[in-house]
Amino acid sequence: MLNLTGSQLTLEAVVAVARHGEQVAPYGPEVVHRMRASQRWVHDVVHQSDTVIYGVNTGFGSLAHARIAPDQARRLSRNLILNCLVGVGDPLPVDVVRAIMLIRANLFARGHSGIRPEVAGLLIEMLNRGVTPYVPGKGSLGASGDLAPLAHIATVLTRDEDGDGGYSGQAYFQGELLSGAEAMRRAGLERVTPEAKEGLALTNGTTFMVAAGALAVHDAERLVRQAEIAAALSFEALCGLTEALHPALHAASGQPGQIATAANLRALLRGSQLVDSQPERVQDAYSLRCTPQVIGPVRDILDFLRQRVTAALNAASDNPLIFNDADPPYKVSGGNFHGQGPSLWLDFLGIALASVANLAERRVFRLLTPELNNGLPAMLVRQSGLDTGLMMPQYTAAALVSDNKTLAHPDSVDSIPSSANQEDHVSMGANAARHALEIVANVRHVIAIELLTAAQAIDLRPDGPKRLARGTRAAYDVIRRHVQFLEHDRETTPDIEALARLLQSGALLAAVEGLVRK
């Protein structure tokens, strides 16, 4: 069971809760104390002070000049949530929404947000009982945080003061899409009326961007290591030359990721009877020879992104923030909600990962082309012409890498003013988040196509499977448990999807790395 402290959340914990249903413990006593202290401060300011605090007793955005009476504080909080329900488009995946909820609950544990533990704790209970709000994927500018996505979550757990509780959005519960109120009722949870500042606390912050970043970095790290396995299989299928992987060559580069990728490829290919089996050849094409120089920098970038995203998982990104450890406590209004950092990181991730797919697609093309594949039949089928073989999966790979080139255009360089120019620079980080997740999915399918193609090519080499290295033989065996040799033309979409699911599960990685590391 996961404990939230506001400072110790990891990428692995996010994945465990978002995808695998790990339970989250109620807030501990220290966290509850921090949260109550900040909420009391807000209450005292609203009811016993003339202090003006943005979003607590003022309007929002360009309406910050408007003063709100104490008896309207609840109405203000709920109005903000309702006003931000502007999302459009397909819903965010369930794992992304659950990651948002977890990260938001962890943010509140820091005690800077002025929210009651009973309200923040509803996010934890919703996670544990399987209530997942329906959140349209488009509508956030990534500055003032991810207002629309967070509001679509907040409306499920909050209610109006009067009547039946008012609009509740929609939520999934036990596989069924229901009204938010009905989902909460079936889960045995009661919606709450937000107090002063709680509407702002629930909606203001970079949490969608960070949630997408956490899942994307986790998936990209796993995918890059599996891309190296696919590259090693292609290396053997093409009878590649291992001189290009010499440790001295890569040590001379001074680049940690490149050195690590080259070392992994050497380990994967150790004992292979297919590599270096055509001594008349001098050098391989770049798509083989330069694999460490292309994938290696992506490893370095992912190391950097892991650090930044981990910090963001434990950051207070709403506004204003309340600091209770001073005497007297005080608030600071600023801009931690601005998503320029996550926007840049997510752009960086998409650009880096797209290059991995670019290289993989080129190896697929080479494997299919008799003038380039060192003795294999055209399109990797025995009766070329009568059967077209694996020609068409390469088309899919080409379409996906070209899609990535569009998706990887940096969102972080864009901005458009909003809120009467009060919010005159925005990050577009939510767009970067969506695009990064799409790129991860595209790359996964390209690597799946390379696995399909390389395994087919190996079967067409005399005694090919028997001549594989120990590590790549393990990969080949896993592939063949999911996809059979292509003797004659058939639909290959199920094969590609099966291998993409295999990559997503991590089973290929587990089977291979367990052997290679021994």
Strand order of the largest sheet: 2-4-5
What's the story with the biggest beta sheet?
A: 3 strands, antiparallel
CATH class of the largest domain: Mainly Alpha
Strand percent estimate: under 5%
Name of the CATH superfamily of the largest domain: Fumarase/aspartase (Central domain)
- Class from helix and strand fractions: mainly alpha
Q: Please tally the β strands and state the result.
A: 7
**Helix share of residues?**
40-55%
The number of domains is 2
Structure description:
- With 518 residues, this protein is mainly alpha-helical.
- The protein folds into two domains: 194 residues, Fumarase C, Chain B, domain 1 (Orthogonal Bundle), CATH 1.10.275.10; 305 residues, Fumarase/aspartase (Central domain) (Fumarase C, Chain A, domain 2, Up-down Bundle), CATH 1.20.200.
- It contains 19 helices and seven strands.
- The longest helix has 32 residues.
- The chain is elongated.
- The mean pLDDT is 96.
Produce the secondary structure layout.
Elements lengths: L10 H10 L8 H20 L24 H11 L4 E4 L2 H15 L8 H13 L1 E3 L2 E3 L8 H11 L12 E4 L2 E4 H7 L11 H6 L3 H31 L9 H5 L4 H14 L16 H4 L1 H23 L7 E3 L6 E3 L7 H29 L22 H17 L21 H32 L9 H13 L10 H13 L1 H10 L2
